[in-house]
Automatic annotation (TrEMBL):
The protein's name: L-seryl-tRNA(Sec) selenium transferase
Names of the cofactor(s): pyridoxal 5'-phosphate
Keywords per UniProt: Cytoplasm, Protein biosynthesis, Pyridoxal phosphate, Selenium, Transferase
Lineage: Bacteria, Pseudomonadati, Campylobacterota, Epsilonproteobacteria, Campylobacterales
Known role: Converts seryl-tRNA(Sec) to selenocysteinyl-tRNA(Sec) required for selenoprotein biosynthesis.
Localization terms from the record: Cytoplasm
Gene name of this polypeptide: selA
Organism: Sulfurimonas hongkongensis
Length: 447
């Protein structure tokens, strides 16, 4: 009974000097919760003693945990450039600064400055995209999955879409092409086999209810050996002959030539085929923000804009502004302004210089080894294709590999384990982060 009487009053407890600079409403809520738990624990015999200082400390800890940002800055030392779990592509700091002024002021998002009347948000980015790709029009939605759904719902609801069996993919988050087609109202018509599909398979499947011939990028896997698929150009030609829509879900189309002999679908090349529709992601090889970019013939884009679902799938001013920065950088031949491209095109000599710089700054008793390695681009791009990289192996007799990985993770550095060694891959470590890496290695291995 004495302990229960010792529980402080809420109004007196929240008036303590330690809480003066904190949000009063949140302090009040946490206090009620904390004191209620204390009362219950006393009655259950789990608490036999406490002090107000301990309660203050506990509340401050809960307040900090609740108010600290959920998203935290990390150093990506995995070598995977488009790392889905780590936020995919980085945004260039200078581009973000240019967009900042737009975001902190009113702007012409849906206002036509020439006519003084309401404008269309999608037209803001169309000039740079159409100039770069040579397309008739463009539409931006919140991601490529949305693009796929909107296109199928608009043109193939209660109609048939012909797709190769070898392209009925499942990507991250259990996103399955057949399920998306079903949800959109389209009827899937599978053709060919898992490893081989021919043009005549598409032609034989065309019927009265056929609306679209669709091709899907395989994203995170590839079929090797006795296999073949149909080139998109052949699908475009067949669709045109039969009066159908051709559509390529490219997943991650690129807009500049890739290094290291990588073979990935090029949006620029496919636009020369005069396709009905293409869609691809903004935050993969384009190296921009999350978005689904739909390009193609204006008559089809206009029909997409009339679909009521677009209201739910559209993007905001920040996405449009940052996406335009990326397209302009490529249009002007300044791909080095895009962090994804910068990391992708860095030579192993440059990476080795960074690794040596870190190694030379370390305490002399720390054992490390610079090694040549290979890494993936990630994000469902260039499936099963690797690029060369350089890594620093952290050697420790006292700390096991998985423990090392955890210790670095606690320092906000995400590395990888390879051949039972923990390494930091410099393909994705930024130059501004090198000293932080040095400090972390010194602290973790100083045992």
């Amino acid at each position: 009974m004495f302990l229960l009487k010792s529980i402080p009053k809420v109004d007196k407890f929240i008036a303590k000097k330690e809480f003066k600079t904190l949000g009063s409403a949140l302090v009040m809520s946490l206090t009620k919760e904390l004191l209620s738990e204390l009362r219950e624990n006393i009655l259950n015999g789990r608490v036999t003693t406490f002090s107000e200082d301990e309660l203050v400390k506990e509340l401050l800890q809960r307040y900090t945990e609740l108010t600290k940002p959920s998203l935290q800055t990390l150093i990506n030392a995995t070598g995977i450039i488009v790392h889905t779990n780590l936020g995919r592509s980085l945004i260039d700091a200078d581009a973000f600064d240019r967009v900042k002024e737009l975001m902190t002021n009113y702007n012409n998002l849906e206002f036509n400055l020439e006519s003084g009347k309401r404008g269309e948000r999608y037209s803001l980015i169309s000039k740079s995209v159409c100039s770069l790709l040579g397309c008739e029009d463009v539409l931006i939605v919140n991601n490529n999955a949305s693009a796929v759904f909107l296109i199928l719902n608009t043109f193939a609801r209660k109609k048939e879409v012909v797709v190769s069996r070898g392209e009925l993919v499942e990507i991250g988050g259990s996103f399955r092409v057949p399920d998306v087609m079903k949800q959109s109202g389209a009827k899937l018509v599978e053709v060919g086999t898992t490893n081989k599909t021919h043009l005549y398979d598409y032609e034989d499947a065309i019927g009265k209810k056929t609306s679209m011939l669709m091709k899907v990028h395989k994203s995170n896997y590839s079929i090797e050996g006795f296999s073949s698929d149909v080139e998109f150009g052949e699908i475009v030609k067949l669709a045109c002959e039969k009066g159908l829509i051709d559509y390529y879900d490219m997943g991650s189309g690129h807009l500049f030539d890739l290094p290291y002999g990588l073979d990935e679908p090029s949006v620029l090349d496919f636009m020369k085929l005069n396709p009905s529709l293409l869609s691809f992601s903004g935050d993969k090889l384009l190296g921009s923000v999350q978005a689904g970019i739909i390009v193609g013939k204006k008559k089809y884009i206009d029909m997409l804009k009339k679909n009521q679902l677009l209201r739910m799938l559209r993007v905001d001013k920040l996405t449009l502004a940052l996406l335009e920065e990326s397209f302009k950088a490529i249009l002007l031949g300044n791909k080095e302004q895009i962090p994804t491209a910068r990391m992708l095109f860095r030579s192993t000599d440059e990476l080795r210089e960074d690794a040596m710089q870190v190694q030379q700054k370390l305490k002399k008793n720390i054992k490390t080894n610079i090694v040549d390695t290979k890494t993936l681009i990630g994000g469902g791009t260039t499936p099963n294709k690797t690029i060369p990289s350089v890594a620093l192996v952290i050697e420790s007799k006292n700390i096991k590999v998985k423990k090392l990985q955890k210790l670095f993770r606690q320092k906000s550095i995400i590395g990888r384990i390879e051949d039972d060694e923990f390494l930091l891959d410099f393909r994705t470590i930024q130059k501004t982060q090198l000293q932080q890496v040095v400090d972390a290695i010194d602290e973790i291995t100083d045992v």
